[in-house]
Write a structure and sequence with these properties.
Radius of gyration: 31 Å
Bound molecules: heme C
Number of helices: 6
Strand content: under 5%
CATH topology of the largest domain: Four Helix Bundle (Hemerythrin (Met), subunit A)
Order of helices and strands: HHHHHH
Helix content: 55-70%
Amino acid sequence: MGINLHRAWRAGLLAAGLALAALASSSAAAAEPPVAAPQPAAAATPIKPVTTFNVLMVQFVDQAADAIWDAGATPPKSNCAWEQVENHAIQLATTGTLLRVGGTGPLDAKWAATPRFGLLADRMSDYAMDAAKAARERNAKALKIAGDNLVANCETCHRNFKPDIPTQNITTHLSHANPKAAPRIECQDK
Ligand code: HEC
């Protein structure tokens, strides 16, 4: 084989090899998932609580529960007032779930990791869902029972876990804690 012929032959081999490699890499690329494929759940960004349990208690739990207790004592007369009770009950039930997630307060992670705390948070959600159902069905008696179950459950959890002074020193100002607070104005149907 002359030297030129040998070069040409090698060049041919090289070209064939490159073509093969390209083919192989293109078939490998075809086997890979598309770039925009949905990520598995494990790759989801971690849950990042944005507030403390002390704030959740005062600005969510207490606000929502107060509306349920008010309506338990004086049943709503309008549809929109019943709907507000249902809204508050669903909000309270959801806060039970948030208490399972944890918060940014100094003791929140410890509380959230305690099985009994989780059980009592779940129970709050269950009674709140009972209150939501009672409101949907305009059932004042069932609403009162759900409200009574809720109070007992708040007190059980507080006896077990709540420090004498809240971790951030935030306390409630709602009517059930302060008799001088302004009464709630009931929603009127149009
Ligand atoms: C799963 C346990 C748990 C349940 C259920 C619970 N709490 Fe709490 N609550 C706590 C803890 C713990 C604190 C203290 C938070 C802190 O200091 O960081 C607290 C604090 C509070 C505070 C702020 C302190 C104060 O005395 O003003 C209010 C208000 C409150 N809870 C209301 C309620 C109401 C109303 C319910 C029931 C509808 C309820 N909580 C149910 C655990 C619970």
